[in-house]
Structure formats: C-alpha cells, structure tokens
C-alpha cells in the first residue's frame, strides 16, 4: 500500500512517500520510503509517478527475457547507474533462463 504521510517534528521536508513491502515477526508493517518533500502536492505528484511505474500484470506464459525487457523499459531508470549495471550483469549470467516461461502474476 502506497501512501503520503506527514512526519512529526520540524523538518525541511515533512512529507514522505512510502510503500508497505511486508510484515515483520511482530506483525508490524515494514516500509520502503521513496522520497521526502516540502509540500504535500509534491509528494502526491511523486506518488502518482510511482503508481505509473508499478507493474500489475498477468505475465503467464511470458518468457524471462520478455519480462526483463519490460522491467528494463519501465523501471530501470529509477535505479542508480551502478545498480543498473549490477542488474544487467546478473541478467547476462542468467542466459539459460531467457526462454523459460513464467507461470505467475505480479
């Protein structure tokens, strides 16, 4: 679940965009923060951009290569250059998986 929240205290950028990525062993949510903003409108705009990039697809019978190509087109630019290079290197090492069909949903 994505949300814009207002952080406590006196801050230069009190609004944050966060997403729940899971739950810990005490059943409390674990969050990933995507940015901090001065104004709520800026945070809402960033959240809208995040939602545009989020994939919600039925990828049954797509190959590993097709899924990676879609990922690279839609989401790769949101990572640093160093992270992009690491992802591409890992992808190249998984050449034996390129034609394997995926049987699930994202």
Characterize the structure shown.
- The model has no long low-confidence stretch (mean pLDDT 85).
- With 106 residues, this protein is an alpha+beta fold.
- The protein has a 3-stranded antiparallel beta sheet. The chain has a two-stranded antiparallel sheet with strand order 4-5.
- The longest helix has 14 residues, at 40-53.
- It starts with a strand and ends with a strand.
- The protein has helices at residues 40-53, 64-74, 81-93; strands at residues 2-6, 15-23, 29-37, 62-63, 101-102.
Strand and helix layout:
Blueprint: E1 2-6, E2 15-23, E3 29-37, H1 40-53, E4 62-63, H2 64-74, H3 81-93, E5 101-102
Antiparallel strand pairs: 1-2, 2-3, 4-5
Q: What average pLDDT do the residues reach?
A: 85
In spatial order, strands of the major sheet run 1-2-3
End-to-end C-alpha gap:
15 Å
Cα-based radius of gyration, to the nearest Å? 17 Å
Q: Report the order of strands and helices.
A: EEEHEHHE
Helix content: 25-40%
Judging from the principal axes of the Cα atoms, what is the shape?
A: elongated
Quaternary structure of the protein: single chain
Low-confidence stretches: none
Number of helices: 3
The major beta sheet can be summarized as:
3 strands, antiparallel
Let me know the number of strands.
Answer: 5
> Structural class, please?
alpha+beta
**Which percent band covers the strand fraction?**
25-35%
